[in-house]
Amino acid sequence: MNQLEPFISFVPLVVLIVVFYFLVFRPQQQQKKRHIEMVATLRRGDKIVTNGGFVCEVIKQEANFINVRLGDNQVRLSKDYVAYKIDELSGDEDSKSDK
Question: Taking the model in full, what pTM does it have?
């Protein structure tokens, strides 16, 4: 029985790591995957909100940037700074108000 004691002491640590993975890392990976898919499917005319809170209209996608219309100006925005599409948010709010 003395041979198993070192292994048994590591069981709580292994359980903690598994729980931490399913509660923290996996949801972050799924959220990042959904964000990448959303940015990849942006088309001309889509309304987006940036991480800075600006509402923009998509004009053109490039490799790492998106050309957007911000007021009367046209600017380039890094794809990393797109927070969400306005259509996605408004759809969620409509479903919540129906309940």
Answer: 0.69
The tokens for 80 are 């990393």
Q: Which domain holds residue 50?
A: 4-85
Query: Which of 19, 2, 1, 22 minimizes the C-alpha distance to 11?
Result: 19
* CATH code for the domain in which residue 17 is found: 2.30.30.100
Tell me whether residue 90 is in a domain: no
Single-letter code of the amino acid located at 53: G
In a domain, 93, yes or no: no
User: 7: helix, coil or strand?
Assistant: helix
**What secondary structure does DSSP assign to 44-92, as a single string?**
TT-EEEETTS-EEEEEEE-SSEEEEEETTEEEEEEGGGEEEEHHHHHHH
What's the total number of domains in the chain?
A: 1
pLDDT in tens, 9-48: 888 999 999 999 999 999 999 999 999 999 999 999 999 9
Is residue 75 predicted with pLDDT exceeding 60?
yes
In a domain, 74, yes or no: yes
